[in-house]
Design a protein that fits this description.
Length: 249
Amino acid sequence: MQTSKNTILITGGATGIGFGLAEQFLKMDNTVIICSRRETRLKEAQQKLPGLNIRVCDVTRIADRMSLVNWITEAFPNLNILINNAGIQKNFDLTGLIDIAAVEEECDTNFIAPVHLTNLLTGHLRNQPQSAIVNITSGLAFTPLAFMPVYCATKAALHSFSLSLRHQLSGTSVKVFEIAPPIVDTELDGGARDERGQRDRGISPEEFATLAIAALKENVYEAAIGFAANLRLKREAMFGQLNPEHRGS
Ligand SMILES: NC(=O)c1ccc[n+]([C@@H]2O[C@H](COP(=O)([O-])OP(=O)(O)OC[C@H]3O[C@@H](n4cnc5c(N)ncnc54)[C@H](OP(=O)(O)O)[C@@H]3O)[C@@H](O)[C@H]2O)c1
């Protein structure tokens, strides 16, 4: 994929991985639009990177997704790359009753929104000479961490969807990429890693963005970065290592 002179929408681009990608893509002479729920974080991002275009959007809301697509295709008719990055991560204890509204929110953010945004934008992207859809999944798409069961399932679903999408769009100008990050030091876990005493903070968003963009440039359609490559390769064989207290059944 060409990595300059694109017009790129990154969902959830005000922080973490999305911001890391936005920063590097801007430096590489791309037009970048980011969207997320918190206007303050969008404005902070824009102050750090004055070339950035911002839009408030809650991707769990159908109406927000539709108005985002209407706005962006009107304001940025050369839009040729969609990066489905926005995501949330929750822990659920399946031995008791769980908050099903929280499950729905996680599914809507991590899976339904990418599916809908992809579908809404595919017609537009097909009319661009070169275009791409990039889905940010996770190493946990291949081997789940048991205490965040829904998160891992949404990422496995997005991985599966990416395979089908790539197949269906293979005769078009739209390339379909999946990037599976390892642990990246972001706000995703809401402090849960600290509570668990997890020492591994992972790689920085900047380092991740460099590796991900290198993979996109080389047309690696399914790029598992760092430790995520191990999870992708060995899958269920890694389950015990990721979930040491698991005794099997
Ligand atoms: N960090 C890791 O270790 C890791 C590993 C594997 C995969 N990933 C994936 O990488 C992606 C980015 O996560 P991150 O680690 O960079 O975490 P992050 O810093 O928390 O970024 C997530 C972004 O998504 C936005 N977002 C959340 N819900 C949204 C909604 N309903 N509508 C619009 N935007 C929303 C958030 O902004 P608002 O809250 O303001 O909306 C935030 O900017 C996620 O898909 C995550 O699953 C991360």
